[in-house]
Design a protein that fits this description.
Strand content: under 5%
Structural class: mainly alpha
Helix content: 55-70%
Number of strands: 2
Mean pLDDT: 82
Low-confidence stretches: 1-19, 31-56
Shape: globular
Number of helices: 9
Length: about 220
């Protein structure tokens, strides 16, 4: 028969049991945090990456719209710009939802007012209009990309400031239009540039985002 251990002094056994339980609870909590972090990393990354405008991602559905984009680009005589139009779809919506090119507002409508086909039709039409205006004003292609986000008035702004889009011009235009109001923008491009903010008008990083998307297609 095994020899029984002498009883612990009053209260000591209870304290030891509590300490052991706390250690187990802490270990369990740590393991849960690690599991959630591993399982949720991709979702968390996508949350930041797709904060309004973003890089193209492996889960992007933008390329699924390429056939329709090609059709409407050809209709408006801008078929050579198809990769840029697909990239715009990715930056605007990731190819998800109905108004994939977010072109409702270029018609004076509320956001997300168009069906997918209407959105691509209007997006391509609007892009063609911007290209024509840019050619007339003698401004560069990057100004056209930014104007898709800011509106055609940005082309006039670039035209009187040297004719070449720059990040500085994009920022100064947004600063003027927003009255200097800023907002947090935790996109990797913004974080690298300024710690994670943009002016509260359009997206001053739009050209960079579209170029990054094109490079990833």
């Amino acid at each position: 028969m095994s020899k029984q251990l002498p009883p612990l002094p009053d209260g000591r056994a209870s304290r030891i049991r509590v300490r052991r339980r706390l250690r187990r609870d802490r270990l369990t909590a740590l393991l849960l945090v690690m599991l959630v972090a591993v399982a949720g990393f991709h979702t968390l990354e996508q949350f930041f990456v797709h904060d309004t405008y973003a890089f193209i991602s492996p889960e992007s559905e933008a390329v699924n719209h390429e056939p329709m984009i090609a059709d409407y680009a050809a209709r408006y005589g801008i078929q050579d710009y198809k990769p840029w139009l697909v990239a715009i779809v990715d930056v605007e919506s990731g190819g998800q939802g109905e108004d994939v090119m977010q072109s409702s507002e270029s018609l004076g409508l509320d956001p997300n007012s168009l069906t997918t086909e209407q959105s691509i039709d209007q997006g391509c039409s609007y892009f063609a209009t911007l290209l024509d205006k840019a050619q007339t004003l003698g401004v560069d292609f990057n100004a056209v990309l930014q104007a898709y986000n800011y509106g055609a008035g940005y082309l006039d702004y670039v035209a009187v400031h040297g004719g070449i889009h720059t990040q500085e011009l994009a920022e100064s235009f947004a600063k003027e239009q927003s009255g200097g109001k800023t907002k947090t923008y935790m996109n990797p491009v913004a974080i690298k540039a300024n710690g994670g903010w943009r002016y509260d008008y359009g997206n001053m990083f739009y050209v960079t985002l579209v170029h990054n998307a094109v490079d990833t297609l």
